[in-house]
Design a protein that fits this description.
Blueprint lengths: L11 H10 L38 E6 L5 E5 L25 H14 L3 E9 L5 E10 L7 E7 L2 H12 L5 H12 L5 E7 H5 L13 E7 L17 H10 L1 E2 L2 E2 L2 E3 L2 H8 L2 H7 L5 E11 L5 E11 L6 H37 L9 E8 L9 E9 L5 E11 H20 L4 H15 L16 E8 L4 E7 L5 E3 L5 E3 L21 E4 L5 E5 L11 H13 L7 H12 L8 E8 L7 E6 L5 H20 L3 H21 L4 E8 L2 E8 L18 H9 L2 E6 L4 E8 L1
Helix pairs in contact: 3-4, 3-9, 4-9, 9-10, 10-11, 12-13, 14-15, 15-16
């Protein structure tokens, strides 16, 4: 037996072999193979054949493989490995049961390609006499400059197997991976193992003590990985309704979940009673017996989460002790399945909230596209990144991107609250910096121990960036709270981050707080604005400025005629770090604006004749528009009366120069009157003889909607009329 390791003392094979030397006395001969002893029905040697506990006990072995997965060195001197035929130059897969070859080969190749170890896989190995040995197999990459793999093998006694299986099953919160780990562990007791879960468990819904004879089962895991007979229920398929009902009834006796064993093929066919059900549930003609063990969530009454099934050939009937082992393993791991169910429910809720916050159309004056990509596909906590774009009632468009600290429901709840609050405040006419002031206060309140979020979650340090685009002036007002600077690409192709004044994140300590600034810039038609979160550009391998520069280059390469959603996905794929460490969010906005012939702006002095002059100017413009698109006379009269009332109110209550702006937008006309006052017009109850307040009542009746927004010099009252 060749047990000479390579000379490099740093190789994993040497480390394992040196560990072997501490347990095997020099000159000890390998024990004879178990050919003369009966094989363990579960696939391993009888436990009494294992060496007695003591200084000479040894359950550890090692095999070195080259890149072709052939054996180059081995150290299998312990008696428990006797009968494993692994000569130098032979394929390692010769030691595996035929059904396990594809899965294990894929794992071996994966470790070769990635250099990341695969640890503690429960695996069966074939001896030369046809018996099998259950081991815990770890696959380790060889240390440089060597190539290949080291496979360490730990021969597993029954109790050790139960412990190792339970440990492996509890390592993932993904319900599919949890079910797969349980199925792989159960394979040590049979030829085929399957996990069928209640559909409500699979989708993460709440499990109740409902009538469980109506349980709907879905196949969540199936091992080994191989081609199955036609009609057989495979991974992701729902069991036929009759099969689900039969299984649910069979495992509940006296209303208590219990395991059952169907010992032979004839009994199975008699119980199922249908050739179609036999094809759907029996994995092959050689499968003669099955043990069905319920996955039970303890309670009063207990709730069945699903069923674990282990199939065997006719020559290997289940012993009572093996059924006890199966029940113990399933009982130990059922709570892991329920934890994965709860995580699936949380994951589904967070994703639903993320989808609810996805950008809507910005109208005809702007094009938007967004990409959101969680850290991992199952996202053991979808993050608090959010992105939104929406048209404001006054014709402008808001672009918002934020990054809430943390993951999971706590971050999602804060994300939803901040996003909805930002939308409401922007729709109410507040400027971006004023909105951030409110969000800053909200984050501080949420962190309060008495009135804020529970469970120790803190949103302090969350970031947000808000931009508001005016499609008439083509100006963008932007404010940021600790967020990375947006990228602006001008129509001539120049690109770069905006020069923003740095500001701490939301909820910063009082001593660090500064007024939020507003950065205003012109974005002519054809400009492209990119807002993003740090997960897109932060890479430990490069400086953050380099990551932002790469993003600017990628956004600058977007052609004006490229579909924006496809362009956004391409930018993310080009820029995203090789190892994604945080959620990735990108919002692209292509500025279009209104055509010049669809807008008009006049500045008037605040004099008594201002209303008369405004009516004359607007009347002349409406006559021009009428000849082009047939604006109705009734609409013309309503707009003239509306302009007259708004200008009169501005002269009476505000003073200063007055700005009148008219916008033709699809089926509507938008009228805006700006002044230097800061008082908020309010619609109140007016008596029959009251003079004050009648103007706003007229505005309210003539328009589909109206409102107020504040500017640096005063306010703008806007109103919309349907043409």
């Amino acid at each position: 037996m060749d047990s000479t390791p390579p000379s490099s003392s740093s190789s994993p094979f040497d480390l394992v072999s040196s560990a072997l030397g501490r347990y095997i006395p020099r000159g000890q001969a390998a024990a004879p193979g178990p050919a003369g002893a009966p094989a363990d029905p579960a696939g391993g040697p009888p436990e009494q054949d294992l060496p007695a506990a003591g200084p000479q006990e040894q359950i550890l072995g090692a095999v070195n493989l080259d890149r072709e997965l052939r054996v180059t060195h081995r150290n299998l001197e312990a008696p428990v490995f006797a009968g494993l035929d692994a000569p130098t130059g032979s394929p390692f897969v010769d030691l595996l049961p035929q059904g396990d070859v594809p899965t294990v080969t894929r794992r071996l190749r994966q470790v070769l390609e990635t250099g990341e170890a695969h640890v503690a896989r429960v695996q069966r190995l074939r001896r030369a006499d046809g018996s099998e040995l259950v081991v815990s197999m770890s696959i380790l990459p060889a240390a440089a400059p060597q190539e290949g793999l080291t496979v360490s093998l730990i021969a597993m006694a029954r109790r050790l197997h139960l412990y190792a299986a339970e440990t492996a099953i509890g390592t993932s919160l993904d319900i599919g991976e949890t079910a797969q780990s349980l199925a792989e562990s159960l394979l040590a007791w049979g030829d085929v193992a399957a996990i069928d879960l209640d559909f409500a468990v699979w989708t993460g819904e709440g499990v109740t003590e409902r009538a469980q004879d109506r349980i709907r089962l879905r196949r969540a895991a199936l091992v080994p990985d191989r081609a199955w007979p036609e009609g057989y229920v495979t991974l992701g398929d729902d069991l036929p309704g009759e099969a689900s009902r039969l299984l649910a009834q069979a495992i509940r006796r006296a209303d208590t979940p219990q395991s059952i064993v169907v010992p032979d093929r004839a009994t199975i066919e008699r119980v199922l009673g249908s050739p179609r059900l036999v094809r759907a549930l029996v994995p092959s003609d050689r499968s003669a017996g099955v043990a069905c063990v319920p996955l039970v969530l303890e309670g009063d009454p207990p709730v069945v989460l699903g069923v674990a099934e282990v199939w065997r050939r006719a020559d290997r009937p289940f012993a009572d002790s093996e059924l006890l082992d199966l029940e113990e393993l399933v009982a130990r791991t059922s709570h892991h399945v329920d934890l994965a169910r709860q995580h699936q429910r949380e994951h589904t809720q967070v994703l639903a909230l993320q989808r609810r916050l996805l950008p809507r159309s910005g109208g005809g004056t702007i094009q938007t596209a967004s990409v959101y990509q969680p850290t991992t596909p199952d996202s053991a906590g979808v993050g608090g990144d959010w992105v939104n774009s929406f048209p404001l009632p006054d014709g402008r468009t808001a672009l918002v991107v934020g990054d809430v600290v943390g993951h999971g429901l706590g971050a999602a709840a804060t994300m939803g609250q901040l996003s909805m609050e930002a939308r409401a405040l922007l729709s109410a006419g507040l400027a971006p910096d004023e909105v951030l002031e409110h969000l800053d206060e909200t984050v501080t309140l949420l962190d309060d121990a008495e009135t804020g979020l529970a469970a120790g979650y803190s949103a302090l340090g969350s970031t947000c960036c808000i931009a508001v685009y005016d499609p008439v002036s083509h100006r963008v007002a932007l404010s940021s709270a600790g967020h990375l600077p947006p990228i602006l690409v001008s129509p001539d192709g120049r690109a770069g981050p905006l020069a923003l004044h740095p500001h701490p994140g939301l909820g910063a300590e009082f001593a660090l707080r500064e007024p939020f600034g507003v950065h205003t810039f012109v974005a002519p038609p054809g400009s492209l604005l990119a807002l993003y979160t740090d997960g897109l550009v932060e890479d430990p391998a490069v400086q953050i400025d380099e990551g932002i520069g790469r993003l600017a280059d990628a956004v600058a390469s977007v052609h004006p005629w490229d579909p924006l959603q496809q362009a956004a996905r391409r930018v993310v794929s080009e820029v995203m770090p090789a190892r994604q460490r945080d959620d990735v969010t990108l919002l692209l906005a292509r500025m279009i604006g209104y055509r010049k012939e669809d807008t008009a702006t006049w500045r008037l002095p605040a004099r008594d004749d201002a209303a008369v002059r405004a009516r004359a100017l607007v009347s002349a413009l409406l006559r021009q528009w009428r000849t082009r698109d047939g604006t109705r006379d009734g609409t013309r009269d309503s707009v003239l009366l509306l302009v007259s009332e708004l200008v009169t109110n501005a002269v009476r209550h505000a003073g200063g120069p007055i700005t009148v702006r008219l916008i033709r937008d699809g089926p509507g006309l938008l009228c805006e009157v700006g002044d230097t006052g800061n008082g908020r017009p309010r619609l109140g109850r007016a008596g029959l003889l009251d003079d004050g307040g009648r103007g706003l009542h007229v505005v309210h009746r003539l328009t589909t909607r109206w409102g107020v927004r504040w500017t640096e010099t005063g306010k703008v009252v806007w109103a919309e009329v349907v043409r």
